[in-house]
Amino acid sequence: MGRGGCVIAYILLTALAFFSLAPCLWEVSTSLKSLQEVMRVPQTLFPGDITTENYTEIFQRRPFDRYILNSFVVAAASTSIALIAGAFAAYSVSRMRSKWRAWLMLLFLLPGILPAVLFLVPIYRFFSSIRLTNSLFGLILVHAAFHISIVFWIMENFFERFPRDLVDAARLDGFSHMGAFFRVVLPLAAPVAITAGLLAFIFSWNEFLFALTLVTDDSLRVATVGISMLSGASAYEIPWGQIAAAVVMTSLPVVLLVLAFQRKIVSGLTAGAVKE
Amino acid sequence: MAVLVLKSLAKRYDSGSVGVHSLNLEVRAGELMVLVGPSGSGKSTTLRLIAGLEIPTEGEIFISGALANPVPPRDRDIAMVFQDYALYPHLSVEQNLAFPLKMRKTPKHEIRSRVNEAAEMLGITDFLKRKPRELSGGQRQRVALGRALIRNPKVFLFDEPLSNLDASLRTQLRQEIKHIHDRLTATMVYVTHDQTEAMSLGQRIAVMNEGTIEQVGTPAEIYRQPETLFVARFFGNPPMNFLECQARSKSGLLEITCQEVTFSLRTPATQSQGSVPHTMTLGFRPEDVQLGKSTKDALAGTANVSMVEAMGAETFVHLEIATLKLLARTLGHIDIQSGSQIDFSISTDKLHLFDSSTGKRIHTRQPS
């Protein structure tokens, strides 16, 4: 690419990045405005008087810290379950030579491609009958079931390309099959597992449908549902500033997590793509 | 040193494909046995069955007289060197070497001295702190060899360890493996598809084809007395000459006429006349073709020289008799022009006869 082309590419990429990030910036800006300024016409791009009252409101007048903690518990627990179960499933399927292998893989794909709403009523009715509604554990199970699909597909792809000789060498060097999996395969799969885990965590963190339906107790609500439940002093007042503050507070952990692991994510997503 | 015995060993996969069937083989204590054959002939499967990495469908494996079938790979006391090195990428060379010893809870000071000893033997002392990805292919395979050596196992298995290396490195490492075998006199099974590697390394060679062993023998036996057409075709570069022939029994002798060319051969068959097949394949090695002279008791004739390839140390002479094409190989330089006519002969004791339908050798004896 010539110098001119390079400049044009940069301009286009910057515009694209701005287009994607604009709603986030708008959200941050709104969270720092007072309600009067939010309602003012014409709208202001940056807050005239920066205020943190929206942030104090959501934590002092509403149990938003509780919501975030619930979100964290659900996301972390469901991701852990999905990672363990998904990695085992992915590894065993990757070593299968059966003709049923393709069907089994398709089965793992289904929860990921079918609309979640399809499962909503059956799961709700089933969970009601075994008293798993209104509990974080129930929500964790549902999230884990959906995440297994993501974890399975990412890790199966990695395990399939994983050199079998390495596992065989470990088995001759003194490991059982399981030992070789834990001590040789898993340490090398760490970047891929982190990527799969992060994706699962983010999905869980953002999940709304099941969180809204299965949990009605306010103290058990997660952040996404908490945000939707934010209401003003009257039915006619929408607390935009607080909603924005809640959104920023909810997004922050995920952004930090991705920033912390971004190198691992890139290496995980490209694992096996290029032969070393 | 251990004796390794395979008895009626078979492996069939769920998909229906057959890895090996009814394999019988004895590897003597301290012997270097080479399994050679084309890809898909079952040699790697055999190796993996010996290692315990595959479970046999039928048959038994004995290591030092003890039945190994129920023993998991880690307890068979076998070390294996793989084609793709199979070094642990997250461990340094030193840790890779020490790994099998650490797993066996060897004392630290012993691990250190054995790592150093193996590293010195293979000339990798300078790379001990490096990760496998920082090494060249040859260096990686040396480390893999070291990881096998360090254990001092009962049996060494090699699964095409030199296939990924370039020709000069292959020759060099081949010599080193031979040297290591001479030094340790360990029982080794070496798999390769390369006939040169098989001939130069093996004390005995087992030639495999389609999941079975065609012949077991010393390199000289395999080359001089191929028991099947497959073995005769597989060994030799340039390959053996083959002629399709018709055989007739005549007063206790076997009269053989080869294609439309009118040379016939009289050789007594050891088999009874009734079992002598009508069609047979006659083979002889290019170096057994004598040029410019005709000896007694020989398959002989006159041919056109179609091409002469002077290779320096040897000369390949391509011969044509009607539609028949033959290759002769002579040592050094020979003064022949393309297009000229030349007498040739092949002594009867250099001829190999095979039953065309079964591919099996027909044993003959010299006329008394």
Automatic annotation (TrEMBL), chain A:
The UniProt transmembrane annotation reads 7-28, 67-91, 103-124, 136-159, 180-205, 238-261
According to its UniProt record, where is this protein located?
Cell membrane
Query: Gene Ontology terms, cellular component aspect?
Result: plasma membrane
**Membrane topology label:** Multi-pass membrane protein
**One of the Pfam families matching this protein, by short name:** BPD_transp_1
State whether keyword Nucleotide-binding applies. no
Q: Does the keyword Transport apply?
A: yes
Superkingdom field:
Bacteria
> ABC transmembrane type-1 domain location, by residue?
68-261
- Which coarse location class applies to the principal site listed for this UniProt protein? membrane
- Any single GO BP term: transmembrane transport
UniProt keywords (A-Z) are: Cell membrane, Membrane, Transmembrane, Transmembrane helix, Transport
Q: Which family does it belong to?
A: Belongs to the binding-protein-dependent transport system permease family.
Q: Which PANTHER family match?
A: INNER MEMBRANE ABC TRANSPORTER PERMEASE PROTEIN YCJP (PTHR32243:SF18), MALTOSE TRANSPORT SYSTEM PERMEASE-RELATED (PTHR32243)
In Swiss-Prot or TrEMBL terms, this protein is called Carbohydrate ABC transporter permease
Question: Species lineage, top-down?
Answer: Bacteria, Pseudomonadati, Candidatus Hydrogenedentota, Candidatus Abyssobacteria
UniProtKB/TrEMBL annotation, chain B:
User: Which GO molecular function annotations are given, in alphabetical order?
Assistant: ABC-type transporter activity; ATP binding; ATP hydrolysis activity
**Under what name is this protein listed?**
sn-glycerol-3-phosphate ABC transporter ATP-binding protein UgpC
Q: Name one Pfam family in it.
A: OB_MalK
Xref: CDD domains: ABC_MalK_N
Q: Which InterPro entries match?
A: AAA+_ATPase, ABC_transporter-like_ATP-bd, ABC_transporter-like_CS, ABC_transpr_MalK-like, ABC_transpr_MalK/UgpC-like, Mo/tungstate-bd_C_term_dom, NA-bd_OB-fold, OB_MalK-like
Q: Which GO terms describe its biological process?
A: carbohydrate transport
Cite the SMART domains for this sequence: AAA
Gene name linked to the record: ugpC
Q: Which residues form the ABC transporter domain?
A: 4-235
Q: Please provide, in alphabetical order, the Gene Ontology terms of the cellular component aspect for this entry.
A: ATP-binding cassette (ABC) transporter complex, substrate-binding subunit-containing
Q: What is the lineage of its organism?
A: Bacteria, Pseudomonadati, Candidatus Hydrogenedentota, Candidatus Abyssobacteria
Keywords of this entry: ATP-binding, Cell membrane, Membrane, Nucleotide-binding, Translocase, Transport
Q: Which organism is it from?
A: Candidatus Abyssobacteria bacterium SURF_17
